[in-house]
């Protein structure tokens, strides 16, 4: 797979019926998975929707990653009274998709996306939501650990779909 250098190629999304249905199912699964959380240490909960955000970003690019990122976590944002969560997950999906199209490297793409998301979390949670620094650090550490897990899972899924020729053309 060749990396994309033209901004139009990077931002493009292959829209055919099969791709639309697959992207809709990924987005819907991300939304449904928002209800599935696993509590870990210190009241931090693990959400599964990052897997679907990353999968959409790898398969369909930055616009799909942004859309699934923003659409999959709004119930969590409302429940926690923190609308900035939506922006953080949209940022994760957009940057992961953009960088994957640019570099064709899953780990590098997610690392850069996580750094952007981490900076957003520091700004939004500490400045806008007035959360204590220790709490924000716990959130970032939790996201880091589980973003590694979801990156591995989404990468394996992407590679499986790629081997089965189920990735949209041109990606």
Q: How are the SSEs placed, and which strands pair?
A:
Elements: H1 7-11, H2 17-33, E1 37-39, E2 45-47, H3 49-60, H4 62-72, H5 74-80, H6 84-103, H7 106-128, H8 133-163
Antiparallel strand pairs: 1-2
Task: Describe this protein's structure.
The protein has one domain: Orthogonal Bundle (Arp2/3 complex 21 kDa subunit ARPC3). It has helices spanning 7-11, 17-33, 49-60, 62-72, 74-80, 84-103, 106-128, 133-163, and strands spanning 37-39, 45-47. It is mostly helical and 171 residues long. The radius of gyration is 16 Å and the shape is globular. The chain has a two-stranded antiparallel ribbon. It is 74% helix and 4% strand.
CATH structural class: Mainly Alpha
Low-confidence runs (pLDDT<50, min 5 residues)?
none
Mean pLDDT: 84
The helix-and-strand class reads mainly alpha
Proportion of strand residues: under 5%
Largest sheet: 2 strands, antiparallel
Radius of gyration: 16 Å
Extended strand count: 2
Number of domains: 1
Going by CATH, the architecture would be Orthogonal Bundle
Predict the CATH topology: Arp2/3 complex 21 kDa subunit ARPC3
Shape descriptor reads globular
- Percent of residues in helices comes to over 70%
Number of helices: 8
The succession of helices and strands, N to C, reads: HHEEHHHHHH
Which strand order do you get reading across the main beta sheet?
A: 1-2
**First-last Cα distance:** 7 Å
